[in-house]
Design a protein that fits this description.
The protein is mostly helical. Helix content is 58%, strand content 0%. The protein has one domain. The protein has helices at 9-18, 27-31, 36-50, 58-71.
């Protein structure tokens, strides 16, 4: 995986955009650093599903994601 110190150009910008409110970058996002096109696609899909849907409120989308993660025993 590419470290923060080694990230350059677009990858550095993607890292910054994917950071949480605490400034941390989740490891699942860092894994994508090995395949920047995959990182870009993952980010675009996430944004389309979680932010661009007008049928559900953001809080409802987040609650659905939380329940699915719990059912899948995903700690991410």
């Amino acid at each position: 995986m590419v470290s923060d110190d080694d990230a350059q150009g677009d990858l550095c910008a993607f890292f910054d955009a994917a950071r949480g409110p605490d400034g941390a970058l989740d490891e699942i996002m860092r894994v994508h650093s090995l395949h920047p096109a995959g990182f870009r696609a993952h980010d675009e899909l996430y944004r389309a599903v979680m932010r661009d849907s007008s049928r559900l409120r953001k809080v409802d989308r987040e609650l659905i994601a939380l329940v699915v993660s719990r059912v899948n025993e995903c700690h991410y």
